[in-house]
Write a structure and sequence with these properties.
The protein is α+β, with helices and mostly antiparallel strands and 80 residues long. The chain contains 1 helix and 5 strands. A 5-stranded antiparallel β-sheet has the order 4-3-2-1-5, covered by helices on one side. Strand 1 and strand 2 form a beta hairpin.
């Protein structure tokens, strides 16, 4: 699942990714909410990963982040 927010040339992309971690003794399902943010002023991308216990938690966190950036920073949802 993806979400795109834009404000001028600045943009935020949120992506929920789930995968199986096979590094330990027993495989475990992991869920990440990844935030990629581009700022035109610095002309660079910044990345941040949020570890979640389930896809439902990741979806709730995605909604919270969307609401924050829309309410306090004036971003809008990009229609695709």
């Amino acid at each position: 699942m993806r979400s795109h927010l834009v404000k001028g040339a600045d943009r935020i992309e949120l992506t929920i990714r789930s995968y199986t971690d096979r590094t330990g003794r027993t495989p475990k399902k992991k869920v990440l909410l990844q935030m990629h943010r581009y700022t035109e002023k610095n002309d660079k991308w910044t990345n941040k990963d949020f570890s979640c216990k389930s896809e439902a938690e990741a979806l709730m966190k995605m909604r919270e982040i969307n609401q924050y950036w829309i309410a306090f920073h004036g971003y809008t949802v990009e229609e695709s």
